[in-house]
Design a protein that fits this description.
Blueprint lengths: L2 E6 L6 E6 L2 E6 L13 E3 L4 H14 L11 E2 L3 H10 L8 E2 H7 L6 H9 L12 E2 L12 H11 L5 H11 L30 E2 L2
Parallel strand pairs: 1-4, 5-8, 6-7
Antiparallel strand pairs: 1-2, 2-3
Helix pairs in contact: 3-4, 5-6
Length: 207
């Protein structure tokens, strides 16, 4: 099946929304590495319902009026990767988890580095919040969208009054150092102080 895509502008750069059938299959960054998420042939489909709805919910998220996404998702990867990506969907808005906490959650405490690798291959950025996974010491570590964007998303979720304030905070706290940085620690990180969102996350996992 051919993938369909829609490009949207956002505060974290241009995003490429990708659908397979009636499900969201990927959200790719403007400067994403071509081989990070492997997808098939694509055709532009700006009016496809799932892509239009994804764009609407992302706009609400960036505006600070949405804390949870409600979209049909179609993840394609190995069974281990899908376990990690499912775990990402359980991290509440405004909170973070360490790589070791994700490894414990999926029942494989020795797979910390493998969790980091799967996290880096997460195809549905933002909606499956890989930006909420940080190093055990609180270090941001690597991020496909860039560390400045990771800090911006975390700052936005931490209760900044505006996206402009979050962006300014990100510039002061996390200058861009590139997306590739090794996972250094595996001790549990302290969760953020925000209470979990009560929103739900719809998902459909493909093979």
């Amino acid at each position: 099946m051919t993938y369909a895509y829609k490009l949207i502008d956002s505060p974290v750069g241009q995003l490429k929304l990708v659908a397979k059938g009636e499900c969201l299959a990927a959200i790719l960054w403007e400067h994403d590495k071509p081989d990070r998420v492997r997808l098939g042939e694509m055709s532009e489909a700006n009016e496809l319902a799932v892509l239009v709805e994804t764009a609407r919910q992302l706009h609400e998220y960036f505006a600070g009026t949405r804390q949870a996404f409600d979209l049909p998702l179609d993840f394609h990867g190995t069974e281990f990767q899908k376990q990690v990506w499912r775990a990402l969907l359980t991290i509440p808005f405004g909170q973070t988890r360490s790589y070791s906490e994700i490894a414990q959650q999926i029942g494989n405490v020795n797979a910390v580095r493998a969790v980091g690798a799967a996290n880096g291959r997460n195809p549905i950025s933002i909606v499956a919040p890989c930006h909420r996974v940080i190093g055990a010491s609180g270090e941001l570590t690597g991020f496909a969208g860039g560390l400045a964007n990771k800090m911006l998303l975390l700052s936005l979720e931490a209760g900044q009054t505006s996206l402009e304030a979050a962006a300014d905070h990100a510039q002061r706290r996390a200058p861009e150092r590139g997306a590739a940085q090794a996972v250094k620690d595996d001790a549990p990180a302290k969760p953020a102080h925000r209470q979990p969102s009560r929103g739900t996350q719809g998902s459909l996992f493909g093979s």
